[in-house]
Automatic annotation (TrEMBL):
Keywords: Heme, Iron, Membrane, Metal-binding, Oxidoreductase, Transmembrane, Transmembrane helix
Protein known as: Beta-amyrin 11-oxidase-like
Transmembrane as UniProt keyword: yes
Chief subcellular location: membrane
Known cofactor(s): heme
Annotated organism of origin: Stylosanthes scabra
Family of this protein: Belongs to the cytochrome P450 family.
Annotated compartments: Membrane
Membrane topology, as annotated: Single-pass membrane protein
Pfam family, one: p450
Length: 406
């Protein structure tokens, strides 16, 4: 009798396990096939007949869409910067445009030169359209201005920070930082491997922060700004979750601290200029931005200067480090290019006067071959820098697909 009851219990347990497994399998099938299509069905219904003008693609899960996949692939950008787009190309072919859903918004990924040029140059049909996290972290003064005002502000800033004349102001401290970093790497290389991307990030961070505020301020202040700014990159393209443990939460806290430091620096510099105590030969970017005037004599406000400094950091930090890393990699692999670049540098050093101890702008102008090498690195390294635009009206691209306004 006991044996019969035991068999009944075992049969009952096996039946429950089979039903549970079947239920889980059915649930998985429903979630995988139906749940992942709900987002696309919703937008198909919302767009109606317009949906036939959109390119192929995948809208992903409801609300989050393909955001998690995009962030994962973007974070691997040091080795595979275009992985997200490559997956779309593999699945849908070399169309050049793909619909998707990122950062809680539907969108179109455009990855051909002509279509991208058309979008980026058409201020009448497009405006800046970055995710909430990017807008909040950068708070760029260029975000909420008109197309013409955007161009005016951009010309105003770029004219004073690009070119050989601007480079000359920062050349000596840049050279010292690079030498110090290389000597540090050399001393550690006998004990442990050099993590090239980490070293490139640290180097670019030191150079940029010093150019911004380094002429007058104590080493501890510069190190504090470097530490705080380092956490902002991770939140640029992340989920807008303002909760402890998430990149967005940490970035907002760090940004407030950076703002306080930079505002005090800007106000201090204003007082120095007003009192005539400014040391002109030691200008940094804060000084330059305080002096900048447009054709009507208008100067930048203090908040605009702070936001511009943070924006320029975020725009140049990772891109500079990535370009530096790939330059080393490509030169290491291409022995002929490395040999020619090295010979050019040796010739420049041979012609240097004995009294000259530091790099000069004239010497940089002589680095013709190295400039070509660096330009070629930028061309082939496929650095993934998402440029986001929002359509103001429905736009047809190359007669194939439409970009639809919200």
């Amino acid at each position: 009798m006991v044996g019969v009851e035991m068999e009944v219990v075992i049969s009952w347990v096996l039946w429950i396990m089979m039903m549970s497994g079947a239920t889980l399998l059915a649930f998985y099938f429903v979630v995988k096939t139906v749940g992942r299509r709900m987002n696309e069905w919703y937008y198909d219904f919302k767009l109606g007949d317009k949906r036939r003008f959109l390119p192929p693609g995948n809208m992903g899960w409801p609300l989050i869409g393909k955001t998690l996949f995009f962030i994962k692939d973007l974070r691997s950008g040091y080795t595979h910067p275009d992985l997200f787009i490559n997956n779309l190309v593999f699945k849908y072919g070399k169309i050049g445009m793909y619909k998707t859903h990122l950062f809680m918004n539907p969108g179109i990924l455009v990855c051909t030169l002509e279509a991208s040029r058309k979008i980026l140059s058409d201020d009448n049909s497009f405006k800046l359209g970055y995710p909430e996290t990017t807008l909040t972290v950068t708070q760029s003064p260029l975000i909420n201005v008109s197309g013409e005002e955007h161009k005016r502000f951009r010309r105003l800033i770029i004219a004073h920070i690009l070119g050989y004349n601007s480079l000359a102001k920062f050349l000596d401290p840049m050279e010292n930082i690079v030498i110090e970093s290389l000597e540090g790497m050399a001393s550690r290389s006998t004990k442990q491997p050099i993590m090239l991307m980490e070293e490139s990030m640290a180097l670019s961070l030191k150079v940029i922060v010093h150019i911004f505020i380094g002429s007058y301020h104590h080493h501890n202040t510069i190190k504090q700004v470097e530490h705080l700014l380092g956490a902002l990159d991770d939140a640029m393209f992340s989920l807008p979750i303002n909760f402890p443990g998430f990149p967005y939460y940490k970035a907002l806290k760090n940004r407030k601290k950076v703002e306080e430091i930079l505002k005090s620096i800007v106000e201090e510099r204003k007082v120095m200029i007003k009192d005539g105590s400014e040391v002109t030969e030691k200008k940094d970017l804060v000084d330059i931005l305080l002096e900048v005037e447009d054709v009507n004599g208008r100067k930048l406000k203090g908040d605009d200067i702070v936001n511009t400094l943070i924006m320029l950091f975020l725009a140049g930090h990772v891109t500079t480090a990535t370009a530096l890393m790939w330059s080393v990699i490509y030169l290491t692999k291409n022995t002929l290019a490395f040999k020619k670049a090295k010979e050019e540098q040796e010739e420049i050093l041979k012609s240097r006067p004995p009294s000259q101890k530091h790099l000069s702008i004239e010497e940089i102008k002589k680095m013709v071959y190295l400039t070509k090498v660096f330009n070629e690195v930028i061309r082939v390294m496929e650095l993934a820098i998402p440029l986001c635009r929002e359509a103001i009206r429905d736009v047809n691209i190359n007669g194939n697909f439409n970009l639809l306004r919200k």
